[in-house]
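User: Assemble these into one structure.

Assistant: Restating your components, then the assembled model:
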Amino acid sequence: MTHIRIGPRSSWLAVDWREVWHFRELLFFLVWRDVKVRYKQTIIGVAWVVLQPLVASFIFAIIFGNFARMPSDNLPYIIFAMGGLVPWNFFANSIQRGTGSLVGSAGLISKVYFPRLIIPIASILAGLVDLAVVLIALIVLMLIWGVVPTFAIITLPLMLLLAFGIALGASLGLTAINVQYRDVGYAMPVVMQLWLYATPVIYSSSLIPENWRWLYGLNPMVGVTGGFRWALFGTGMPPLAELALSFSVMIALLIGGVLLFNRMESRFADVV
Amino acid sequence: MSEVAVCVNRVSKEYRINRFQRKKTHERSLRDDLVNTLVSPFRKRDDESPDSIWALKDVSFEVKSGEVVGVIGRNGAGKSTLLKILSRITRPTEGTIDINGRVGSLLEVGTGFHAELSGRENIYLNGAILGMGKREIDRKFDEIVAFSEVEKFIDTPVKRYSSGMYMRLAFAVAAHLDPEILIVDEVLAVGDVQFQKKCLGKMSEVAHGGRTVLFVSHNMNAIEQLCGSAILLEQGKLVEYSSDVRHVITRYLSAGVNDGARSEWINSGREYENPYFKPLRLCVSDKKGKVLNRALNRNEEAWIQIEGEIQKLDSTLSIGYAIYSESGVQLFVSLHTDGPETQWTKLREGKWMLRSQLPLYLLNEGTHRLECIVDLHNVRWVLLPGEHNPTVQMDVQGGLSESPYWTRARLGAMAPILKWVATNVN
């Protein structure tokens, strides 16, 4: 027979991963709900997923590619921009949804028990469907513009996993703090705007002077966008140093995020 | 079976009101905390500060496997907090609880329902949220749909449902939860009478099915019917736990009587502040207008008297009272706008006294509770029946009837004397 002991607060290091696993079906249903509901009552539905980055890329291509003549690693600028926007949008949307996830699920948190970790994880997993759709669109676009993917494309899932891990790690901490201080939710759009410019999405990282690269690489999305472009377009060398740095930052974010989340978890229901 | 299913050991729960509740929303901003830290960086958080509330204080009890336990108490006595801790939604500040068995809790029906999803989809989603697996839901799906009586609309988004259909579907999922220990909060207080009956039936099926159940309700009938024992909470403390359910209920109800409010309630100044109708006094009086400080005979003239102040006249204002029997059943509601519109008292801004005579020979013997209610018709309740409203007690005793046959209190919530006519139809 199952035995549970409920006490004031469990150690804030221990996460009951077995329990998280036990609730995997709930995780699945929450992801499924988010996906199912997202484009309800729209006319073009899931096409929005493709339309948003596509329009943005066009605008970037006209402004930065045509007028400003920014270097684009010898690729058509629109392809270059899409190659940055796809991982970036996935990341930015994940953080945005992840940060708001706990507060958005206040009704669940105050009425039902389950490992709270499931909520931010589900909100980010739900973004993967959008990502898959937009990736296909991007590959079609590449073929239209005559850019053929190389074998490097098999490393693409690794880059996406990296983006996923970074977004999850950051979201866990942010959403936990957001329960207590709603300031986080208001600050995030601004932060993400700045973060976008600190990431080689609309410009090439070759613009950054060599001796500042290490500092620049501390932004984990530098490795991700660089790695993503390399995996898709196969141009130049894989940015190994940046990827290693990204990976380390991801691990740090995940550990820090889980600890912070776990520490604040016991208060969620009282405060949310 | 005499195995212990739930063992609650000296559990307390503290809520800080200055930090969370005092602000209307439970949010606090980073700035507040930064400012506090800067202004008084060395002040330690004082656990015994007057700004904290102990929703539960040192509560201990044991529930044996298979027992059905009712938890009763007034609003704010700590019932919901206790259930929240038992269902692991929030943690106790002190003390521990040991639970043997799988717990399922129903603190609300329809938790996690999504308006955009169809009935079918919501059954799966809600089932998963309540802790059922996909296969379990697959197996019970038809049963759930049949119970909910919404077969025809099972693939329609629930936002198109009537509120009745919505509640039925939500309860149907909840009713098919199959844990070893069930924790239920007031779920029966929804839906129409017909549906409540059905829910109650399902509940008693569960209760008599050998499962351990903890059940919070204000419905004393339900508690008495379903529970083998009852716990009475008062201001966060457990004051009574006995298998004599009747006894615990009586104690709960009589606690209300000794609350200072007997047959007269007077506003202490700032209670129930609102511009539409702020109640100032509520009492039961005799025909001369004197407060009735004793039991009322059934054959005696009595008036319900409500005084209050109108600052802003609302044309939809309705003032009245609701009356409850000893077991907590609402007997009826009366409003000053019940008659034809031409007979309503024309109210204006100012202080008013409204009186309404209680029909003779209507209420059964016993201690009744009478509460003042105020409604803006079809807009909102200013004082909603069943909430924490101005309340007085009214004992009814004696003067049963002039009939020589009617010598004892009748069964039934009310005991009117009605007219009978006999016609020979040979």
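Residues 19-27, 44-48, 257-261 of chain B have pLDDT under 50 and may be disordered.
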